[in-house]
Amino acid sequence: MKYNPNVLDCAAAPIAEAWSWVKNPASENLIDMCQAVPAHLPPQSLRDYLGDAIKAGEGATYTDIRGIPPLREALAGNISERYQGTVSEEDILITAGCNQAFCSVIDTLCAEGDEVIVPLPCYFNHQMWLTARGVVPRYLSFNAETAMPDANEARSLIGENTRAILLVTPNNPSGAIYSPECIRQFFELAREHEIALIIDETYRDFIDINQVPHHLFVDSGWRDTLVHLYSFSKVFSLTGFRTGAVVAGQAMLEQLKKIQDCTAICAPHAGQLAAVYGLQNLHAWKLEKSAELAQRAIAIKQAFEHPDLRYRLISAGAYFAYIEHPFDAPARDVVKRLIEDHEIVSLPGSYFGRDQERFIRFAYANVHERHFDDLISRLIASQPSRGYSNE
Ligand SMILES: Cc1ncc(COP(=O)(O)O)c(C=O)c1O
């Protein structure tokens, strides 16, 4: 067979590759910070509800291309409240997870050769999809002091083939939470150039729930520029139910529906039922989980302040800590050694775009903070003696 050269150019799926380096996946000594997955199952009440619904025959049919109305209404209410803005069920299309949302949005906006502005480091599946589609990423450099992208740099990259600017906040892999001001600057830039601002906010439920992540939904013209992506995977522990959403204006959704109809037809019906249940009944549960992760972010920052540690925490938030390692070696080699010699599973920065060899990503969401002392001891044991580092 002959294969699509764009797909041949894509990197292999990173999580599977990192796990292939683990000799004993069943080892109880492993500290697994590889994949961004919730540490717990959905609550029993959701499982009971879903079990009963399926037994009663619900969830077996296709739904409207855009998703079931109660879910669109519940999500519109949730966003309007959280962002203090105006979103209606008409602005929402439910997808088979946030990854599918991204892929469909890119297919809707970009032809081969078109460009998307992407801050470094970037989420590997975004990069893989752009490569697979022949869409050209124009990267914004990573500022390891602020971990924030710079809208002025983005301005200099916009050309006639630019179709979108892509932000992920809270960020995967860096954990950085972009400020509302930073997001606003990118929005204004996108609006000025009549291109889309795509914001993937998969992790927005794991930051201070009382703070508004940004104020774009308050802007009466948001639908002309903003394309918001969301996931139910992490917030209600529904990763396997494949449910996410695109929130955008009618003009965008009309085109997106064509892609959705050809690929998924509709998001999984059972996942949609689970997501409605979550939005309507699990607010307190969500707050509890969010508080646990906020506490873990504080704990990991404190753990990395250890005076003997030569790994430096660059940023941390939501599910991730982005760490500068002390070796004069590619990140892949460092991660392999941490797996083989110290049973710490993480991901090399090189999976997250160019110029990331100095960094590794720790997904700490599924590792309780009681293991952090052990983690730091192992990292100290792994580090080079002074004089052999890249300092
Ligand atoms: C930034 C980002 N977007 C999307 C996804 C995928 O979400 P979903 O499970 O809803 O497809 C992930 C999962 O790790 C992610 O980190």
Briefly characterize the structure.
The protein has 391 residues and is an alpha/beta fold. It has helices at 5-9, 14-20, 44-55, 69-83, 98-109, 124-133, 151-157, 180-192, 250-263, 269-281, 283-303, 331-342, 372-382; strands spanning 31-32, 92-95, 115-119, 136-140, 162-168, 196-200, 226-231, 244-247, 312-317, 320-324, 344-345, 347-348, 359-363.
What can you see in these coordinates?
The protein has helices spanning 5-9, 14-20, 44-55, 69-83, 98-109, 124-133, 151-157, 180-192, 250-263, 269-281, 283-303, 331-342, 372-382, and strands at residues 31-32, 92-95, 115-119, 136-140, 162-168, 196-200, 226-231, 244-247, 312-317, 320-324, 344-345, 347-348, 359-363. It is of the alpha/beta class. The protein folds into two domains: 5-41 and 285-382, Alpha-Beta Complex (Aspartate Aminotransferase, domain 1), CATH 3.90.1150.10; 44-282, 3-Layer(aba) Sandwich (Aspartate Aminotransferase, domain 2), CATH 3.40.640.10. The strands form three sheets. A seven-stranded mixed β-sheet has the order 2-8-7-6-5-3-4, sandwiched between helices. Strands 9-10-13-12 form a four-stranded antiparallel β-sheet. α6 (124-133) links the parallel β3 and β4 (136-140). α5 runs parallel beside α6 and α12 (331-342) crosses α13 (372-382). The radius of gyration is 21 Å and the shape is globular. The mean pLDDT is 95. Residues 36, 97-99, 123, 168, 172, 200, 202, 231, 233, 239, 244 line the site of pyridoxal-5'-phosphate.
